[in-house]
Design brief:
heterodimer, A: Rossmann fold, 6-stranded mixed sheet, about 25% strand, B: mainly alpha, ABC transporter involved in vitamin B12 uptake, BtuC
Chain lengths: ~250, ~400
Amino acid sequence: MGILEVKGVNKRFGGLQALGDVNLSIAENTVHAIIGPNGAGKSTLLNVLVGKLIPDTGSVMFDGQSVLGRKPYEINQMGISRVFQTPEIFADLTVMENVLIPCFAKRDGSFRMHAIESVTSETDMIEQAEQMLLDVNMQDKLRDHAGSLSRGDKRRLEMAMCLSQQPRLLLLDEPTAGMARADTNNTIDLLKEIKEKRDITMAIIEHDMHVVFSLAERITVLAQGTPLVEDTPANIKGHPKVREAYLGESG
Amino acid sequence: MFGLGKKDMALFWLVTVLALLAPFLLNPFPEGSELAQFNAGYPDLMQRFVIFGIFAIGFNILFGLTGYLSFGHAAFLGVGSYAAMWMMKLMTMNVIPGIFLSVIVAGLFAVFVGFISLRRTGIYFSILTLAFAQMSYSLAYSVLTPLTGGETGLQPKMADPRILDGALAPGATPQANLFGIDMGASYQMEVGKWLFTFNAGYYLAAILMLVSFYISIRIFRSPFGMMLRAVKSNKHRMNYTGLNTRPYTLAAFVISAMYAGLAGGLMVAMDTQVGPERMFWTASGEVVLMTILGGAGTLIGPVLGAGLIKYMENIISKINDNILHGWFAFMPDGLEDAIVFLIHPFIGKGWHLTLGIVFMLVVVFLPGGLVEGGQRIAALFKRKKKAGGAEPNAKPNQPAE
């Protein structure tokens, strides 16, 4: 029984079958990649997992609880964090505040009216945020405006924000899309480091095979909305069905 | 001290000193001189400074922090005024219960309006709040006449019950008071040619403004305030960080409406009458101007903006052609007439034109409002001190949106 169980999920947009009978099980503490050509339904699947889309049929269970029909913030509070294709950060706030907010969200839940005590008096939260920024090597940028960071640093910051909630499942939507090779490698190293340091399950949606094969322990190949095959990276590499889906080769 | 950081405390002390010494500071010109008409140190205007300061401070908690632009905040001011007036008519002319009630009623009304309006963002939110305010205005003007007095508004009457007050002495009229201190009572001090007026009502309003200002600093520096800024910055990320934005924005909306209610209650305490025009959309627009002019999202900006607009409204509108002729009398006649002709549209009833131009200049050149202007000047001085040192480190604040 995996931490995330997707069973019989279907989703249609008008005449288009975006997801057709998707079954997927992600085991705890693994890095699971979901790959597939453009239009295979990867993003739709991810949006179903975070509550942005509700499937027509099927179930999505996280740690034994259904996520369907819950709001994105409720699903996040269950322990699922998401990293976006373009980093979603609080651009007008400082780096420190960016990390403090998820720390507070973890401690206080989805809403708390703490309007009188000052942020600076919450020393344990600040320590926690500082430690997190140290973990991603951003300790010298605490006071910078997040919007002025380089793209690579924004990605780091977003990771730090997600991790400071101590999620049990981290969803990554093409974390290296549009990055130069050096930045991509840095991101791979960062993710490896994160995985080494803590018990966390990661689901990565990715185009870049280099990233997938550097990180993933299990790979699911999606094509035309349906899982084609699920296996270890070594077995996926030479799989004829995968080559067919990607390259259109027959046989 | 008082849970504030060093800089905030300094700012708070500065505002305190300015507010308490306002009767001196706003009357720099001797009585009877040419320039005496620029004096703003009379009770009526000083009261307006601090009351609209409270209104703008509250508005800034919503607009400056969350970015939600309410275009109907005057509705809460009006509702607060009516509530305070009824407390005075039914219970007591002591202003404290009335002010208290005005805050509560405005807050409750805001829970209702906010619950509906905050389902939308951006321009739709603004339109919804505007619609609510205009509905309130129309209702107060027509259907609710028994409650609001319609067009004529409400004033304390001799026949009002005033259950908690004793009977009035024969011939006395009901006066708003604070445990017996008449709100209109003033002490005048003559120093040489100068005349300073200390008004009881002004000091009550000023103290409440300082309390409001203090609370607003605390909110700005709290985790709650940080969350509100996060709403403005990226609502999407808020949702995916496990935070429900709705209660945060609703709380900000209600708090800012309570500030508006307080301002409304104080208006009634200073000048015991209220009419529906207080809720008209221009009144809602005015507080938006004040906040943007001073600097949205800054602590002191809204107070400065409120002060500037009320000063212009009262002082520039008093200047007329005769006064201009007096100023330019030293010039040859033709030139004098020409200059008066040129300035004429900007004074008296034309003060809105002057305000419009000032507003345009500020928004174009100082998007951070007067506060940004102050910061630039401070940065300029710092650079001079450093004598060609590094770049000035005073970053301009977030521009208003």
